Amino acid sequence: xxxxxxxxxxxxxxxxxxxxxxxxxxxxxxxxxxxxxxxxxxxxxxxxxxxxxxxxxxxxxxxxxxxxxxxxxxxxxxxxxxxxxxxxxxxxxxxxxxxxxxxxxxxxxxxxxxxxxxxxxxxxxxxxxxxxxxxxxxxxxxxxxxxxxxxxxxxxxxxxxxxxxxxxxxxxxxxxxxxxxxxxxxxxxxxxxxxxxxxxxxxxxxxxxxxxxxxxxxxxx
Length: 221
Prior knowledge:
It contains ten helices and six strands; from the N terminus they run E-H-E-H-E-H-E-H-E-H-E-H-H-H-H-H. It is α/β, with parallel strands linked by helices. The chain has two domains: 137 residues, Rossmann fold, CATH 3.40.50.2300; 67 residues, Arc Repressor Mutant, subunit A, CATH 1.10.10.10. Strands 2-1-3-4-5-6 form a six-stranded parallel sheet, sandwiched between helices.
């Protein structure tokens, strides 16, 4: 199945470079590009991509606002937004996750990582680079502590599902969670699917945010 990709970045060389790289893959099809956030939203609505590579710092409408605008009026499963970020955009990381972004990729990542990231996000999984996840956790740790009421939805989770959610928030992969709980990886996938369904979340990225925002997991755990 061909994965349709839209590239949004204000630098023409970046768009062309990413486009050539992705177009060389047999399962990836670059359907268009955009030089600013407003164009990205318009192009995504017109071209119906599976994945949008979204730069953060763009004119007219930045990547964060574009992500919020695009995902606010789309079906729950499309498109997936993969944010292109750099080390100095920690505030954007948190807000973009809340806006519904499915993952982050550092702009200086190897070409193989970009290709892998597009495939992972298109498959419905979240992709959070370890460096980005650590910075996200550090951002929570730096905030003044406050009591956060847990949403009623968390009560719908079984004890095992709650345990899996905690491990997801700690950045563990399905394989790592399976090893920790001594269960099959397919069992973990089933738990993750039920967690997302019960909490009405798009993917693991939103699960991470929810776990920290509700106080289910404390920064530093």
